[in-house]
Design brief:
Blueprint lengths: L1 H14 L3 E3 L2 E3 L20 E7 L8 E7 L5 E7 L7 E8 L5 H11 L1 H9 L3 E5 L8 H4 L5 E2 L10 E2 L5 H12 L5 E11 L1 H10 L6 E5 L17 E2 L2 E2 L4 H7 L2 H9 L5 E6 L5 H13 L4 E6 L21 H18 L2 H8 L12
Parallel strand pairs: 6-7, 6-10, 10-11, 11-14, 14-15
Antiparallel strand pairs: 1-2, 3-4, 4-5, 5-7, 8-9, 12-13
Length: 360
């Protein structure tokens, strides 16, 4: 019986492709058997407009859309655009981690409505996005996924070499926008705050589009920074303001391999007294060392994510001096990288909001 059990156990390990070497376990990325149908082609990205609805505090409505992702589930976004057929340049906007589904998209869009109104008046489509929540530390172990042959079902299913991660939803949204007739497929930019800033870095290492603006990007995983129990903390908050502290805890070889795959311009906004400003700075330094097209801006502002301009308590749109400076910088950056001569006439015909919208 013992011999039979040992044989069955060994056979099970062989079936799942696991081999023991001393105390080490070597496990292939996938347990597929050889043969079977050729890898299936990825399904063409597409989206379904499920509603067009008014936006609080604005006269410009929004399309609510579900976009197909790599593993064939749908991610929620909203699209607001200038009048006309375009094609217009487009900017995706997101803050923090993915959660809350379409409800979160609508809430974020409404908070950004007045800022977006000014962007739309400048000739841009504004796309508010959400995505699946992250799997902690999965990115550090993952490689860009590949399609695999189907050796089990006898069909040709869509099989992947790894799980779909949150940054891949951003790629799916960009790919979808590149198919939309009123969007200029060569003029898509992205803005992201905090975790959503890291999303841009991760996505840019696997796919290229017009330009990215990473606002205080929480690039722990992108730089493979050790955030374990020995990391400096005040209470539960990690203290990575000092770039030298971060540099000692980051895996430069892994970070530089990811950075080497980036082929699009990226602007990084830091914040002088942010507890993670060293993360932001190191991202810029290593991007610069790798001779990438990267720009650094830094301000001393009391609010995390200050580049996103939310309404005042009374509903008015009143960016402070630093927010106005950051607006001029990032919109100039997008104009430089996304606007083409054919956009100039369309932009000239648009009018910016003349009075602050209220009621947010």
């Amino acid at each position: 019986m013992k011999r039979l059990m040992a044989t069955l156990f060994a056979g099970s390990l062989a079936f799942f492709g696991v081999v023991f070497l001393g105390s080490r376990v070597i496990s292939p990325a996938w347990a597929q058997l050889p043969g079977g149908a050729a890898p299936a082609e990825s399904v063409s990205t597409h989206g379904y407009v499920i509603a067009n609805q008014p936006v609080k505090g604005s006269s410009i409505p929004a399309d609510l859309v579900f976009v197909l992702t790599r593993d064939e589930v749908y991610v929620p976004i909203s699209i607001r655009k200038p009048k006309g057929d375009g094609p217009f340049p487009a900017i995706t906007m997101a803050s923090g981690e993915g959660r809350g589904g379409m409800k979160q998209v609508i809430q974020t869009m409404e908070r950004l409505a007045q800022m977006q109104d000014h962007m739309i008046a400048r000739g841009y489509i504004c796309v508010t996005i959400n995505y699946r929540n992250e799997i902690p530390y999965a990115y550090e172990q993952a490689k860009p996924p590949q399609n695999l042959p189907d050796s089990i079902s006898g069909n040709s299913r869509m099989l992947k070499s790894g799980p779909t991660l949150d940054h891949e939803d951003l790629i799916a949204v960009v790919r979808y926008l590149q198919t939309v007739p009123y969007v200029d497929k060569d003029a898509i930019g992205s803005m992201g705050v905090s975790h959503s800033g890291e999303m841009i870095m991760k996505a840019a290492a696997e796919y290229s589009w017009g330009a990215g603006i990473a606002i205080e990007p929480a690039d722990h995983e992108f730089l493979t920074v050790d955030t374990g129990p020995t990391a400096p903390r005040e209470g539960t908050e990690i203290q990575f303001n000092n770039v030298d502290v971060v540099r000692k805890r980051a895996n430069k070889a892994e970070a530089m391999e990811r950075i080497s795959r980036i082929n699009m311009p990226i602007m990084i906004f830091g914040r002088v007294h942010d507890h993670q400003n060293g993360i932001f700075q190191l991202t810029y330094e290593w991007m610069k060392e790798a001779a990438k097209d990267v720009t650094w801006e830094e301000f001393d502002h009391p609010v995390h994510g200050y580049v996103f301009i939310y309404p005042q308590k009374d509903g008015s749109y009143k960016p402070d001096d630093i927010q106005q400076k950051s607006w001029d910088i990032f919109m100039g950056y997008f104009d430089q990288h996304l606007k083409h001569p054919r956009h100039q006439q369309m932009t000239a015909e648009l009018k910016p909001p003349t009075t602050p919208a209220g009621g947010n």
